[in-house]
Specification:
This protein has 422 residues and is an all-alpha fold. Helices cover 81% and strands 0% of the residues.
Length: 422
């Protein structure tokens, strides 16, 4: 009997994931690393604003942090397949700590903000390799695949909290102790993360053959892109993730214009994030096979509440709509877990990086698209339009969805654990 045809078993708990050997310190180190990224962004943005008084320059600082994330994930991915991910993680943390040291010196010497942009660009570029390495590490660290799916859910929740904590801590440090001391805390986060990885993570050998030199590196990257584009399951999962960004990003991008100066604007912006956390908790209670069966239905349902924004409802109703849409975003958890486990181990570094860069690019384009539409429609109308586009594109993918191939990929990814559980 196929695993997908057997009886579902109870899903493991988050506590079970935290009891996995070596997982907790690695999880905390990754959280520290994320805090460091966000602290660096908001600290340099504050420095630029204090010097220039220009909102455009300040926004440019945050934009600078997005572009290298895209480039870093796409261009540095093959490094993870060429070197043991333990050392990629350690060196990426230490190199980012070095960038923070340089930023500290520049802030003290009142260096040009263009130079600050450049160093921040390098810091975020290096972070691309770190992200891919952590994803590969997680697949090896959590060998029980049902627990792995739970670890992905826990990581998704952590990312939401880390974004809020990193920005809040960074903003608080700047206000209380100034940007220099804020950067010291930033430096500590990267150094501590590197030390944890050094003493906790084991060195795993690199799988597969790699091209030599720069040309070999380029061929590895090109072949990974080609393999990803031709893969009937991975490409569809990646496409669904990218299409979903159109609906996911719009509420966050347009929350403040919708609030129009109302004191509840921040709560409105947080509504889909809170909803996403609730959705992750709910879907995490399901067995992994049931989770995967919800991917397409939830993806189709996710933009539907946002369509009602066109009716210009009261602010509290809009909050509820954003919250519900956030809850329905939970399909991203099994999507990401299945994508990771379906990828060949020897290709995980570059494939994870390329797929991550596509997601970053899709989010960036969606932010710009939502803002552009809002210029010609009301902010509420723009959210509804983006949701409608998202629904249509998702429906096209759903009609052509390779259900049998996806089911076989899921069965294969979770076969060992599912067979034991059944």
């Amino acid at each position: 009997m196929s695993p997908s045809q057997g009886n579902d078993v109870d899903a493991p708990t988050f506590a079970a994931v935290l009891r996995v050997r070596r997982y907790l310190p690695v999880f905390l180190a990754n959280a520290l690393s994320m805090w460091g990224d966000y602290i660096a962004r908001i600290t340099i943005a504050a420095v630029v604003y204090n010097r220039t008084g220009s909102p455009l320059a300040t926004a440019g600082t945050l934009a600078v942090s997005l572009v290298p994330t895209f480039l870093g994930r796409s261009l540095l991915g093959p490094l993870v397949d060429r070197m043991p991910y333990k050392w990629v993680l350690i060196w990426s943390h230490l190199l980012r700590a070095t960038c923070v040291l340089v930023l500290m010196g520049m802030v003290l010497q009142n260096a040009s903000y263009w130079l600050l942009f450049l160093v921040l660009f390098v810091l975020e570029l290096i972070g691309g390799a770190s992200t891919a390495s952590y994803m590969v590490l997680l697949t090896d660290l959590v060998e029980d695949r049902r627990l792995y799916a739970k670890a992905v859910a826990l990581g998704a929740m952590s990312e939401q909290f880390n974004q809020a904590i990193g920005l809040a801590v960074g903003g608080g440090l700047i206000a209380i102790v100034g940007p220099e001391t804020g950067l010291v805390f930033d430096l500590v986060t990267f150094v501590v993360s590197a030390v944890v990885i050094l003493f906790v993570v084991q060195v795993r050998p690199v799988h597969g053959e790699r091209g030599r030199g720069v040309r070999g590196f380029a061929r590895d990257l090109s072949s990974a892109a080609s393999d990803l584009a031709r893969h009937p399951v991975l490409f569809r999962l990646m496409s669904l993730s990218a299409v979903a960004c159109v609906g996911i990003v719009a509420p966050e991008a347009l929350a403040l214009p919708i609030a129009d100066g109302n004191r509840w604007g921040g709560v409105l912006m947080a509504s889909p994030i809170v909803g996403a956390v609730v959705g992750i908790v709910l879907i995490g209670r399901m067995d992994v096979l049931r989770q995967n069966r919800t991917i397409v239905p939830l993806a189709l349902a996710m933009p539907v509440p946002l369509l009602l924004a066109a009716l210009q409802p009261p602010l509290w109703v809009t909050m509820v709509l954003f919250f519900l849409s956030g809850v329905l975003q939970a399909f991203m958890v099994p999507l990401q877990a299945t994508f990771a486990l379906t990828t060949e181990p020897a290709m995980r570094g570059r494939i994870f990086s390329l797929a991550g860069s596509v997601s970053v690019a899709a989010a960036g384009v969606s932010y710009l698209a939502a803002g552009w539409v809002a210029k010609y429609a009301t902010p509420n109308g723009a959210v509804a339009i983006c949701a409608a586009v998202c629904l249509v594109l998702t429906a096209v993918l759903a009609v052509t969805w390779p259900h049998r191939r996806v089911r076989l990929a899921v069965d294969s990814a979770y076969a060992t654990t599912s067979s034991r559980a059944a």
